[in-house]
């Protein structure tokens, strides 16, 4: 039958998920400190053996065997040492039994209790640290505990940590009890326990979201070659595969957009553009700027010896190429690691068929004359038509291949963009 002490230790280990050896060692060290404080001296080395019960506890002084004793607190002569342990030799250490004093009671017990709690907390923090250290670089599910002005308090598997504003996707609104996914960048052990550095704004967060949804990515069949992201706004992702029989873009988008839609639900209004990766920077740039049509490109060294590229586009393509706030061309430049300058050009288009997106390759039922203007569109507000004209989109031909979401980024609402796309579609089917 186990003793009350052993039963208490077993219960403590079960509740705190601690190793039993760690708990026993903490208790023995605590009792040693308490005894040394009240009945020993600073120079002594005390060792405690707990045993199966308090009644079996034994306390020892650890002393070194020497020929001549110079310090009675830490040394013992060979003759006395052999009386304790017959095979004791000079230079070795022996454990000298200490008789327990009756006074070793309430004060010592309180001291021991305090140290035990401290040691147990340290052990618990150590275990949590190692638990999360193995999860660095992974996607974790968390729960929002509290929202402050500068951060949100997040609980992850029993540990509360902060998600600063800088690591939150701009525009996101949290509520207490909400479950969100976060990316664990790093774990640090502090006096208050493990500190988890989490984020939702890194490129790795997006990559981890896709990896969770795409079996081919986990198996290494498809991968993200490059990524350019502005959290909460837009993210361009160039994907590739070493297997020519696999369509990496299709793998990331999923059937009817199932995979990418799941990821987009987690990042809110942030737009995700999946494109084919090309080692050729020109092809990659054209793919990143799609569906905008680039007339020609020129790569050169800038004033500061930085690689730059000039892209020449027609006036009617300029707004789509640049995007709202310049985000489209800026992210495309980040993707190839170059500064991109957009220049209006009225010459012929240098179209590279190898990087034209599938949607651009579709042929309309009837060719539309370059001279047909958007004034002929039915069901579109005059204000919208005026806005489109100001942006240089005055001809119906310019809207071929454009989707409502892409059109909404250049200065009109999504509903207005859908009305334009619908009207253009009806006109082209005539």
Mean pLDDT: 81
Q: Structural class from helices and strands?
A: alpha+beta
Number of folding domains? Answer: 4
Strand numbers in spatial order across the main sheet: 7-6-5-8-9
Unreliable stretches covering 5 or more consecutive residues:
353-371
User: What is the overall shape?
Assistant: elongated
* Main sheet attributes: strand count, strand direction, barrel closure: 5 strands, antiparallel
How many strands in all?
15
* Assigned CATH architecture of the largest domain: 2-Layer Sandwich
CATH homologous superfamily identity of the largest domain: NusA, N-terminal domain
**SSE succession:** HHEEEHEHEEEEEHHEEHHEHEEHHEHHHH
Helix percent band: 25-40%
Please count the helical segments. 15
The CATH topology of the largest domain is what? N Utilization Substance Protein A, Chain:P, domain 4
Radius of gyration: 35 Å
- Tell me the strand percentage band: 15-25%
User: Whole-Å distance between the termini?
Assistant: 92 Å
Look at the structure and give the CATH class of the largest domain.
Alpha Beta
Plain-language structure description:
The protein has 430 residues and is an alpha+beta fold. The protein has four domains: 4-130, N Utilization Substance Protein A, Chain:P, domain 4, CATH 3.30.1480.10; 135-201, OB fold (Dihydrolipoamide Acetyltransferase, E2P); 278-362, 2-Layer Sandwich (GMP Synthetase, Chain A, domain 3); 365-428, DNA polymerase, domain 1 (Orthogonal Bundle). It is built from 15 helices and 15 strands. The protein has helices spanning 4-16, 20-39, 78-84, 106-133, 203-213, 215-218, 248-253, 258-267, 281-289, 315-322, 327-336, 358-361, 382-390, 404-408, 414-428; strands at 46-49, 58-66, 75-77, 93-98, 139-147, 151-156, 159-164, 179-190, 193-199, 223-230, 234-240, 271-276, 296-301, 307-313, 339-344. The protein has a five-stranded antiparallel β-sheet. Strands 1, 2, 3 and 4 form a four-stranded mixed β-sheet that branches. A hairpin with a 2-residue loop joins strand 8 (179-190) and strand 9 (193-199). Helix 5 packs antiparallel against helix 8 and helix 9 (281-289) runs antiparallel to helix 11 (327-336). The longest helix has 28 residues, at 106-133. The radius of gyration is 35 Å and the shape is elongated.
């Amino acid at each position: 039958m186990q003793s009350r002490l052993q039963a208490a230790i077993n219960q403590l280990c079960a509740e705190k998920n601690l190793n039993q050896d760690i708990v026993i060692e903490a208790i023995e060290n605590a009792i040693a400190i308490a005894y040394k404080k009240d009945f020993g001296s600073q120079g002594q080395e005390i060792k405690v053996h707990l045993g199966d019960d308090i009644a079996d506890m034994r306390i020892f002084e650890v002393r070194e065997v020497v020929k001549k004793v110079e310090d009675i607190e830490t040394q013992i002569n060979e003759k006395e040492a052999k009386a304790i342990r017959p095979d004791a030799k000079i230079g070795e250490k022996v454990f000298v039994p200490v008789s327990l004093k009756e006074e070793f009671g309430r004060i010592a017990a309180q001291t021991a209790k305090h140290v035990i709690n401290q040691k147990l907390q340290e052990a618990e923090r150590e275990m949590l640290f190692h638990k999360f250290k193995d999860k660095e670089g992974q996607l974790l599910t968390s729960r929002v505990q509290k929202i402050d002005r500068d951060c949100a308090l997040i609980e992850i598997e029993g540990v509360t940590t902060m998600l600063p504003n800088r690591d939150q996707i701009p525009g996101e609104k949290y509520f207490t009890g909400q479950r969100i996914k976060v990316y664990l960048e790093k774990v640090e052990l502090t006096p208050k326990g493990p500190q988890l550095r989490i984020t939702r704004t890194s490129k790795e967060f997006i990559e981890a979201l896709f990896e969770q949804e795409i079996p081919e990515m986990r198996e290494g069949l498809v991968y993200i070659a490059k990524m350019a992201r502005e959290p909460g706004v837009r993210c361009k992702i160039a994907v590739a595969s070493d297997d020519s029989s696999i369509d990496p873009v299709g793998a990331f988008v999923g059937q009817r957009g199932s995979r990418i839609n799941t990821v987009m639900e987690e990042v809110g209004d942030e737009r995700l553009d999946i494109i084919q990766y090309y080692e050729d920077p020109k092809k990659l740039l054209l793919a990143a700027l799609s569906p905008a049509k680039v007339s020609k490109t020129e790569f050169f060294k800038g004033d500061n010896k930085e690689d730059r590229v000039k892209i020449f586009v027609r006036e009617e393509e300029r707004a789509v190429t640049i995007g709202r706030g310049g985000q489209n061309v800026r992210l495309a430049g980040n993707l190839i690691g170059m500064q991109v300058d957009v220049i209006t050009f009225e010459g012929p288009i240098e179209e590279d068929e190898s990087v034209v997106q599938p949607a651009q390759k579709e042929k309309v039922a009837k060719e539309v004359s370059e001279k047909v203007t958007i004034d002929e569109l039915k069901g579109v507000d005059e204000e919208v038509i005026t806005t489109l004209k100001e942006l240089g989109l005055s001809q119906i031909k310019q809207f071929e291949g454009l989707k409502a979401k892409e059109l909404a980024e250049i200065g009109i609402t999504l509903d207005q963009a859908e009305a334009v796309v619908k009207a253009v579609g009806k006109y082209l089917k005539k």
